[in-house]
Each structure stands twice: as C-alpha cells, then as structure tokens.
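writing this on my phone so excuse typos. first protein, seq and then structure
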Amino acid sequence: MKEQAAIFKAKSTIKAADKEHRRKINFNIGKYNAVVPQGKQQFMDVALARERAKNIKWKAIETLDKQLENFEAAITKRGAKVIWAEDAQQVLSAIKKICEEKNCKTLVKSKSMVTEEIHLNDFLEKHGIESVETDLGEYIQQLDGEPPYHIVTPAMHKSKEDVAKLFAEKLGTDPRATPEQLTLTARKVLREKYVQAEVGVTGANFIIADIGGIAVTENEGNARLSCSFPKTHIVVAGIEKVIPSITDLGLFWPLLATFGTGQRVTVYNTILTGPKQPNETDGPDNMYVILLDNGRTNILKDSKQRESLYCIRCGACLNACPVYKNIGGHAYAATYSGPIGSVITPHLKDLGEWKHLSYASSLCGNCTEVCAVKINLHELLLENRQEAVEEGNSPFAERIAWKMWKQGMLRRRWMNIAGSKTKNWVVNTLVKGWAIHRGKMVFPKKSFNQMWQEKYGNR
C-alpha cells in the first residue's frame, strides 16, 4: 500500500525543487489567471450561474439511471449503438472488436481524459493499430512519450523552446521554428492521418439525455475531423458526464469555456446525435457510444463523495491549487491530478493505495472557491482522510501519534508543562515523518497562556 505514496513523494520532491519547471507552469497559469476574469464578465451573476449548474448536475446524478436510459433510447433510434462497460478491460475489448471488424490500421483520437484513464493508446499499439492524438497538446505529449500533464492543457509544462526541440528530434523540423511553424507542421502530419484512419475516437464533454446527444467542445476542430472523416466513430464517456436537457448547454458551455480557458465560449461546439442519416451527406457510417463505469458507481453510492461526480473537467481547481503549482501534474502518477484527482482517484482505484493524494493538500479551500459547479473539494479531501482511517488504511504508529496529540491538546496543563525545547524535540526528532519533507518546527518559548497572563493577568 506504500508503493504509490513513495512514488508520489519522490516525484513531488524533485519537482518542488525544479525552479525551471515552476517558472514554466506559473507562467502558463498566470496567462490563465489574466483572462478568466474577462470571461466571467459574460455572466450577470457568476455565483448564481455556478449554483444553477450544480443543481442541474445534482438532478442528473441523483437520477443517473433514468437519464442514461433516456439517452440510450434516443440515440439508438438514430442508428447509434450503445455499449455499457463496467471497467477498462470491457471498453478495450469492445474497441478491439470494432477495429477488427472495420479492418482498422490507423485510428485518430481527439482529446479525451477517459481514454487516458483506460490507457487506450498503449493497448492499440500492442495490437498493431496506430493511434494518433490529434489535439496539438496531446500530440506533443504523445511524441514525447508522456501522459497529459493537465486536464485541459496537456503540455502546460513545456515552453515553446521545448516543443521546437521535440519536433526537431521527432519530425526533423528546424529547432528554431516558431510556434506558428510548429503548428503548421503538426497540421500537415495530422491531416494526412484523418484521411487514412478507418476509425475515429472522441470523448464527450456532456451526454445529453433528452435528445440522445454527445456534446463536444474544443478549440482546434480536431474532434470534428476525428468523428466525421473516418467511417466509424467511437465515443468513450464516463457515465457521470450526463446532463438532463439540451437547454442546459446554454449554461454549461460558457461555464466550461470561462473556467477552463477564460474564453466566453470555445471555438468549436458540436452536438452529435448518431451516424450519418439517409438524407445526410457527411458523417460516419457507424457510431458507437461506450458508457464507462470503472469505479464511478463506487462514488455514486457514497452519499458524501457523490458530489465529486458533478465535475465538468474544466481544470480550474488545478490552476488554483498551491500544491499542483509546485509539483505539477505528473507527480500525482494518476490520470486525474490536482484537487479533483485527489478526491476521485482513491475511489476509482483503491483507497488504501491512493489515500496519500488526499493528504497532498493545504486545505486552503481555493479549489472549492474556483470550482465551476461549486463542489466542496477541500471538504471531500477531508472525507477521504476520514474514510481511510475508518477502513484501517493508516499505520499503527500514525494512529498512536494522533491519539497522543489529541490527549495533549485536550489538556492545556500538559501542553504548558512541556517547554519549547521539549516540544521542538518531540515534533522534529520523535515524530520522524514531519522533518523529512519539511523545515523544522520551532515552538515559541512562552505558551499562549503565559503571554495572556503577562498581558491581562488571571481575568
């Protein structure tokens, strides 16, 4: 149970000391912080908009079974096929079967965190199918052999010089190429892949229950090409992405754009309701929608943690988190990083193995403050900690230490008897875990009681 925690501590220790990494990520987050206030100006009352969005997601999650059944019935009528998958293996098996039926050699894929969750690219490569990321940031990460660094901006930790060097190594471009030249190079490579691909894969920003639609929002147009050029389109979506009605998009699209990138609305917003119809000239001949559980019902059955399923993956909590801004996305070693990742990963995977992520927080509450749908993230992190202790996923020494601390804090006389030297020794020497990753704690020479008495007497 200590393996993932050890990996996290090792990676975060290295990244926290990497000043160049910190400079890059803070530069990019600074650009985000500069534009978000402008995007919020489109709302007459942004707090009310967030509250309404939370209420809509509450309704969707509380009636999730019915919403998903409505979606399936509506999109099936238009010729799409819906596949229900309990875990990652079922999704991968379904996609493999579809690819074999379509004699797929090349697959194009738009940005999708849920396909990162199931490690789709690695799976397809092992089975001789070329899977090409078509989002520019994801394409950069794929070239470099790295997973996404951020939910919304996958290559946030790379400078333009880093990308130029990478393209020079992998694609033979000029190492001094400008961002415009690099983008044109990527466009040339990827457009050839759209034509070659037999299958296109996208995620879903929202599953629209009443019309049986998949809503996709993007800034590059690559998702539209991925789902329209190939003859077969596969959607992979987590079951929590559902919203009740198409009218809800009037609220959710601007919220996602503003809190995700600071835009009023993203450049391309698409609603997909099935494969090409008899009277239509464009679109895929076949459309499959795979609805993935993969631990989401574990969260659903937990009345307190259920709120985390409201997340619309805007990434605002990552950009606000002081921990994320110091250690970056890869240190988490999980698909979903930052505060929302620290909340949901222990439930999507294993609480005992991943509980350490819920301690990777200052509990400052800034994640809750910026959440587009007002999820109480810092409170859910505390809930995770409590659940881990209740389930016995805490070391014996840790439990004893906290019991001793509790007894001391409940008895002021005990605290006063121990002088500052004794307290310093206990925390910095006896409690070994404190000083390993932190500076030494120095207690004041006088206790609060002593200072109070000196100033006010016994009153």
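second protein below, same order as before
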Amino acid sequence: MWNLKDENKEENALHIKRALEDLNGKIPGLLRLTVNRAYNGFDLCLYSEFETRADVLSYRDNPLHVACQQIVHAAMSERVVCNYEG
C-alpha cells in the first residue's frame, strides 16, 4: 500500500494503476495484479498473485517492474508491504 505525495495525487494514482496493471501477462509467474484506491488510511493498494515464491523474486528484478517501481517511488510518500502465502 502507498500514500502518495499531495502534488498531482490523482494523476499519479491513475498513472501508477495503469503502469502496474499493464504488467499482467508480461512477466512469467505473475498470475494477477490489480491496483485500486484504498480507504484504510492509504491512497493505493497493490494486490498480486504469483505461481511460486521464486516468481516473486523474479518479478521484483524484472526490468518491466523496475520501470514501474521508478514511477511509484517518484510519487509515493509512504509504503507498507506484506507478502504471504495462501
């Protein structure tokens, strides 16, 4: 989950959503990824599913994801992450 900087918050939220959701079908092992507005004190929430734990690491280092990371990091003010197995 992220909180975004106040400057251009709505535009940045939409840009982040589009950039990350565009990764669907492009990174091996990534089964599903969605980004939506949150209402729990954070601005955005990323939910993603992977085939294996190793696929999470592969996704993290994938150049397509790294490019999205740069977009997110430029716009965010705070981040909270939780990885779990279901």
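Residues 2-79 form a domain with the Alpha-Beta Plaits fold (CATH 3.30.70.100). thats all i got for now
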